[in-house]
Amino acid sequence: MTIEADRIDSVELCRAVAAFKAKGCRFVTITCVGADQRGAELLYHFDRELALSHLRLTVAGDEVPSICGIYSAAFLVENEIQDQFGLRFNGLVPDYRRTLFLAGEDSLPPFRRKSGPDQEE
Amino acid sequence: MAGTILPFGPQHPVLPEPLHLNLQIEDEIVVSATPAFGYVHRGLEKLADIRDFRQMIQVVERVCGICSMIHALTYCQGLEELMGIEPTPRARFLRVIWSELHRLHSHLLWLGLFADAMGFESLFMQLWKVRERIMDINEATAGNRVILSVNVIGGVRRDLDSGQTAWILSELAEVEKGFSAMSRTILHDYTVQKRTRGKGALSRSQAMELGCVGPMLRASGVSQDMRLLGYAAYGELEFAPVVEQDGDCYARCRVRFAELGQSIGLIRQAIAKLPAGDTSVPVKGRPPAGEVVARAEQPRGECLYYIKANGGKFLDRLRIRTPTFANIPALTVMLPGIELADVPVVLLSIDPCISCTER
Amino acid sequence: MGLIDKLISTARRSSPWLLHFDCGSCNGCDIETLACLTPVYDVERFGVVNVGNPKHADILLVTGTVNLRNREVLAVLYEQMPEPKVVVAIGACGLSGGIFREAPNVVGGVDKVIPVDVYVPGCPARPEAIIDGVVLALEKFRGKALAVL
Ligand code: SF4
After folding, report:
1. How far is it, in rounded angstroms, from Cα B277 to Cα B275?
2. Deepest of B37, B197, B313, C7, by most Cβ within 10 A of its Cβ?
């Protein structure tokens, strides 16, 4: 079983998210499925009248565009993913610089995998 | 003038939990508020790597003690969906009963803390006295006061006999009498109104845009409640979300207060309709590879679990989006413009649960 | 030791004030600690009053695990309390890290950071157990206060 989600890349992300906002969707959250040095996979969840829609973003490297400019509430979850997975969100305000949860001294992102990601089904 | 930065927390008398706010103030008026976290962070999603999918039930129950039963419920429902298991009808109704008991104790707890934040200590004590009856029901039916541990994949571990259900009903009548006696104070008292009306107001569109959930959203006029998804046995029970229009602290208080009565109604319905049969189905094997999103309504709002399994004993990824996590961004909009003395009231009006937020 | 010191010591012994700090608790132990202060359990009958300021406190109740960020706060709170003082660690988490001991951002029990006098087990600890712990802490506190005299 997999979640039905539109696959997008980072260039299309902001336009796709803005389209959800235009439809009056509530931003639910972002889930980072996994990340390592080769790239990362993120799921964006939106809700409209109790129905969920998802976007699946795959990025190479560790830079992701921030959607704070569209849904300001995303700052919290984007900071959390920065902490946990060591990704970098461009344009994130306010940016806690990986100190949202972690104390600065040991900022090794605990959820980041060292080896390659498991292959997609 | 740049104003003064005032640190609020992490150890603060009104906060039962450590949350830190950097308040920029000018003449007693808050200009901006930046929350800072990390004092309760444990990183428990990572425990999925070393605890198998059944042991994780015990871990997710401890995301937050106040809504522990519903955390486990959401997690179990997610795995049931992934594994293609249908819990028994009796289990589904029992889950509603325990969920609503949790909602009752959580809302009473919040009303008490909220009264305390306003400096209304006797009301706090009264509400917590009423709440102890719910804790007694929890203990008598599940064996523990706070962390019930009743959910398993495929159903529940405990059953209620007819003596217990009758006793629950009589206790609930007492609880109802207890909080109804306070309704005039909570809803119409001059002090309460003075401290809460018009404070921290969010319009309908603001609440939607900030991604608020639960009572926050309903107090701003959006009729959204995850129980309408019909999970567990909610699809077979009658209820309508409690909605208020004003979106201020008073409206949130009204929503939560009305939900006390709603929860009692739901428990009564569930007990009346409680079907006979087993409380759980036997579950063999491991979750198949795949991913699933599960949602449920906690006392504080929508809770979302994302579960990714790889066919093995350990989950690939477990992500928990708790309701307070979704409500915190609203603080950055609600706090600017209010007086410093009202910060505790507005802060508590979102029903903050920091251990949920940080996990 | 002057008369005033003796007087203060006697007063502190008969009515110690307590400060509750939540380290990384899941709230389970936290709300049970709060429940102790409310009518049904009511620790105030032992002369104990809950305060928010560490400088007024004699007994420190700590719930939950210590993590890398709150350990400094905990140490500072402990420092700010006047001597003599007693620390009560509550719940499996406060004792050893409990169910979270292997989580990435967990240091362990409270005694990794500050000395603990009373350990209250349970997950969550029952209000009765917490009251027992507080009463035991009172005895220890009296002992310490008399030793200073
Ligand atoms: S000991 Fe148990 S109930 Fe107490 S804080 Fe830890 S996990 Fe929560």
Report:
1. 7
2. B37
